Amino acid sequence: MSKRFLAGSGLLLGLLGVLLVRAGNPGNMGVCVACFVRDIAGGLGLHRAAAVQYLRPEVSGFILGSFLIALFAREFRVRGGSSPLPRFFIGFAVMLGALIFLGCPLRMLLRLAAGDLNALIGLFGFVAGIGAGVFFLKRGFSLGRAYPQSAGNGLFVPSVAMALVLLVLIAPAFIFFSDSGPGSFRAPFIISLAAGLLAGIVVQRSRLCQVGCFRDLLLVGDPHLLYGSLAVLVGAFSLNLLFGYVNVGFAGQPVAHTAALWNFVGLTIVGLGATLLGGCPLRQTVLAGEGDTDAGLAFLGMLAGAAFAHNFGLAASPAGVPPAGQVAAVLSVLFLLGVGFTFSGSQVSIPARGGIVSER
Amino acid sequence: MNGKPFDLDVRGLSCPEPVLRVKKILDTGFDKQLSIITDSRVTMENIGRLARHAGFAFASEEQNGQYYLLLSKEV
């Protein structure tokens, strides 16, 4: 995809990220995969943190938008089998890290674009985590190959997304809706869904990825994906200026805490875990829509991680990171390092000229 | 698998492994050309970008959802 399209899609994502706040979403949280998957876990009653329960239609939109455009562009390829179970647990750890920081890498950019300097600390941690991931990639880290699967496999995640949309609309008694707290701040349903669909379509086409941007830069010196992330910043910052949302500083930022160490560590976990997965939480969600069942497992791991984080008091809040969350963060780092070493093995050998190389 | 022969098979590998494997070969040098097979359009685009940045000629051809890529040294 061209640089211009990538930058355009980043710009659109940045604009949507602020417009959705304007339309009712929580502060600096117009779009956030981690926060919204956490809210979905709450909406389904998988955790009972009353302040963060809502089946965010944006996430369903990401998946369905990606699904539809992939079908249309003949890129819907159902595949899987690249270490599905490890991917589930890496997704789980990524979510714990994101909920320690309070946001996925996309929300990190949106927070930065509104002057939240805690996100700058997070950015340093994020790059450090990606650096660690690059270390493993250079040592030959691989979760193995995915193989083509029958089409039915690729319909599960989009069906779940569709079911979530219907559940918001029907709102049966067993679905939770926050009355107060971040979960109660929501843009009108149709706006959320439309924005999610649009973002899913555009990100599927542009391959925008917040992890890929630093990874490719560190690994092969390729700044291509960086243009997308910079464009998110530019788009969000300009609208934040227009709406008067810019507030530079550490204290008093919306849905954020000032524990610098944990902001750093939280996004280190996300950076490392997402590098091992091959993409940021948004990218995983979009891949899950276009038939990548391994990414689907990572998505479900994030959902489980979110439920776990709130059931066991691990997630951060504006008050800070609880001790149990700090322990979970350290364990997540150790787990990801373990995965990194375990799956780093022999690299591909240089092929004999004209010969067919097979390995792994 | 019918189709053309190839030197390197990066089918089914997650980002950025295909690019990394190609880069390793480019860095260590190879004779005249390198043929690669992938099943992902994204991988095809990424390898194309790498090849052009490194000053190699790049050609790709799709056959039944498989992409055959050819990198060659520009004279």
Q: Can you characterise this structure?
A:
- The complex is a heterodimer of chains A (360) and B (75).
- Chain A is built from 14 helices and two strands, in the order H-H-H-E-H-H-H-E-H-H-H-H-H-H-H-H.
- With 360 residues, chain A is mostly helical.
- A two-stranded antiparallel sheet of chain A has the order 1-2.
- The longest helix of chain A has 21 residues, at 118-138.
- With 75 residues, chain B is an alpha+beta fold.
- Chain B has a single domain (8-73), classed as Translation Initiation Factor IF3, CATH 3.30.110.40.
- In chain B, 33% of the residues lie in helices and 32% in strands.
- Chain B is built from two helices and four strands, in the order βαβαββ.
- Chain B has a four-stranded mixed β-sheet with strand order 1-2-4-3, covered by helices on one side.
- In chain B, a hairpin with a 2-residue loop joins strand 3 and strand 4 (66-73).
- The longest helix of chain B is centred in the middle third of the chain and has 13 residues, at 41-53.
- Chain B is globular and about 30 Å long.
- Chain B starts with 7 loop residues before the first strand and ends with a strand.
- The mean pLDDT of chain B is 88.
Any chance you could write out the topology, listing elements then pairs?
The complex is a heterodimer of chains A (360) and B (75).
Chain A: H1 3-22, H2 33-43, H3 57-72, E1 79-80, H4 84-101, H5 105-112, H6 118-138, E2 147-148, H7 156-170, H8 189-206, H9 210-220, H10 224-243, H11 260-277, H12 281-289, H13 293-311, H14 323-342
Helix pairs in contact in A: 1-8, 1-10, 2-13, 3-7, 3-8, 3-12, 4-11, 4-13, 4-14, 5-6, 5-10, 6-9, 6-11, 9-10, 11-14, 12-13
Chain B: E1 8-9, H1 17-28, E2 33-38, H2 41-53, E3 56-63, E4 66-73
Parallel strand pairs in B: 1-2
Antiparallel strand pairs in B: 2-4, 3-4
Helix pairs in contact in B: 1-2
